[in-house]
Amino acid sequence: MPEIKNAFHVQPAKLLALGFLGLILLGAFILWLPVSTHEGISFIDALFTATSAVCVTGLTVVDTSTTFTLFGQIVIMLLIQVGGIGFVTIAILIAVLLGRRIGLRERLVLQEAYGQVSLSGLIRLTQQIAVITVVVEGCGALLLAARFIPEYGVGNGLFYGLFHAVSAFNNAGFALWSDNLMGFAHDASVLLVIAALVILGGLGYTVILDIVRKKSVRRLSLHSKMMLIGTAALLIGSTLVFLALEGDNPKTLGPMGWGDKWLNAFFMAVVPRTAGFNSVDMAGLTDSSVYWTMLLMFIGGGPGSTAGGIKVTSLIVLILAVWSVLTRREDVQAMGRRISRDVVFRALAIVFFGGVIVFAGSFLLTLTEPDGTGLHKLLFETVSAFGTVGLSLNFTPHLSPLGKLVISVIMFLGRVGPLTVAYALAIPPRAKPIRYPKEDVLVG
Amino acid sequence: MPEIKNAFHVQPAKLLALGFLGLILLGAFILWLPVSTHEGISFIDALFTATSAVCVTGLTVVDTSTTFTLFGQIVIMLLIQVGGIGFVTIAILIAVLLGRRIGLRERLVLQEAYGQVSLSGLIRLTQQIAVITVVVEGCGALLLAARFIPEYGVGNGLFYGLFHAVSAFNNAGFALWSDNLMGFAHDASVLLVIAALVILGGLGYTVILDIVRKKSVRRLSLHSKMMLIGTAALLIGSTLVFLALEGDNPKTLGPMGWGDKWLNAFFMAVVPRTAGFNSVDMAGLTDSSVYWTMLLMFIGGGPGSTAGGIKVTSLIVLILAVWSVLTRREDVQAMGRRISRDVVFRALAIVFFGGVIVFAGSFLLTLTEPDGTGLHKLLFETVSAFGTVGLSLNFTPHLSPLGKLVISVIMFLGRVGPLTVAYALAIPPRAKPIRYPKEDVLVG
Ligand SMILES: [K+]
Ligand SMILES: [K+]
User: Which residues form a coiled coil (chains A, B) (predicted)?
Assistant: First the structure.
């Protein structure tokens, strides 16, 4: 019954994609209003900022701290929160609070939004997500405020704490200082709280809920185990890589003591997946670190989280599939479980679209930006947008108007997910239950 | 029976990889001898040149035309021919000519070398490959010689014709002029003959034989149809892309008349897949053209040909697999045929290794080469080596000794094929016929 199967996916996908688009346009309009900024901004800059906030990317063409009024900054924070937790979740929560019944249609949209396999328990999941968000962001905000209040006063200190907790847990990477978090390079209390929020946010609600429910590592789902192992491996490995590459670099970690070297190398490993805060000047990194950061940004965090990129699990599934080819096994397997062909194909499609988007995006930028800009800057910007990371080699403000549009579209694709967008655009195929004869093809 | 299955692949793979390695070392030693060069070269340069010749890549650290004696140039031509047609083919041909019996073991090696599915008819295939090579290279050599003899005399003209026909049909890209084929940018008789040889060589023997045997397009195998359609699409599309990107560039096609613009844009579309000749200065290209060229180099030509890269069919199979995900079909299908899961997984593994090799290789180059060299140069060099293309942004001679080693290893991996190398290195897994329970993983 291919038609029903398709209806399951095309309609929710369309609604999700259009919802994000509507939210972006609404946000752009509000940020464009005189009340949001001190001296006004162009519509393309307002659109870029709204896209960056809703898609929790954090790339900025204007300085968030000096351009926007308190009102504008609160709008940005709300866009981050709604974009991060998902407007579907917000809409369902409001409906539940108002005592309305949630029908099959809404459940199907939720299923697509969360990337869930089953239809049952979606409403409970929505409520649990809300509770987790409030608890985690609340704790983060208080911890950060405790650090900020002595310096900025109670009102500003609380707002700064809340803004950065929301920005961190939703992996947005917006900060209210012109140099992002570079002023806190020696401040473990700020960097570690932010890092913890970023890591939790990047694992995804599915994993956090699984840990809260099961309370035992051994009984966790295969998905949670993969995410935890993959995340730990990427974090530990990348901390060592950055320590080795940047330890002696006078522009970054070189002048620091050993404690701060470790702290900032760890922070550099955390943020490309996909927070986009920076505690050192990205433009001062060695070419090797820039390249390694691109890899981390392309991989991103976990599915069903605020992270972009191809996702840690997609990468692991593909590695396992390749391993099954090398060892000539029939099944793709991991930790005593078999992974179905459908999951492998879905991971393949995601990585394929990721590659196509990054290539096409940076190719377009070679056309829109002046020749000789340097491929590494364009590629870095594109991967950062696709991974909704928001790190930049200080190049975003120099983008041409067309370039800003390209990056905006990539942020959108990165946040909504290339597969969801593809489903939203796909024409439902006609039912065709014919099975063709098999023929082999050589593939090198 | 996984052990037997593995024995089928590990042993021939090991032999193929070691054979190529031996041929490279032998070639390096001969090119290092005083008789091969006018003024001597370092061993690393001899090794690099031999690797480049045996892996039919065409990257050069020294000028082939002025560094090597006639003897050295003939050695390079023979290395290209043996590396291109494959030393297994040569060995089998000699054995057949000597009237020796070819056993199962040799057939298994041939099967791996040709990437063939079936074990029958391999000897006949070997003989047919030899005939095709002699006929095509002979015709090409005569056509080119007809152009060269008036200019260089009979002896030199014939040698130049033969050398460049061998270099073109084996997709090697070595030329006996310091500026490669830039002196023939306005000479359709040379560029079109070379282009024809390159295209035929890049299609692969399987396709050429299929065309010769069937004589009808409709009865061609799915593999041949895919290769022909894919190659035509890439050639036509890329000619138009280069015409658009370079038509007005004063450093490349700008000063040419319309006929030469088309001729050279077509040539630019042909050579990255995977010939490595150039009729215009690669360093003069726009950033966009450089990037597009990298894409073509990564894709490469056909399996069972002298081309490197991930291969046209792997790309098409992956696109079809992604399409099956989008349309929610059970089967991956093309032109009324079903493509098996095994073929898709194999294509996936090849592209995966391709990505890993290109990333790892260029990452290593950021470490071995001075900071600030420019990522586009390092990436271009790496992709060119992996695709055994041999184009360069004039950077190869500036590589550090360690960088030369990195590029040599990548050329080797590109030529032998990442899967074959992986099989050669793989430890045979223990028999484990357990089928684990299925569990789904979210891949976002
Ligand atoms: K971000
Ligand atoms: K070549």
Answer: none
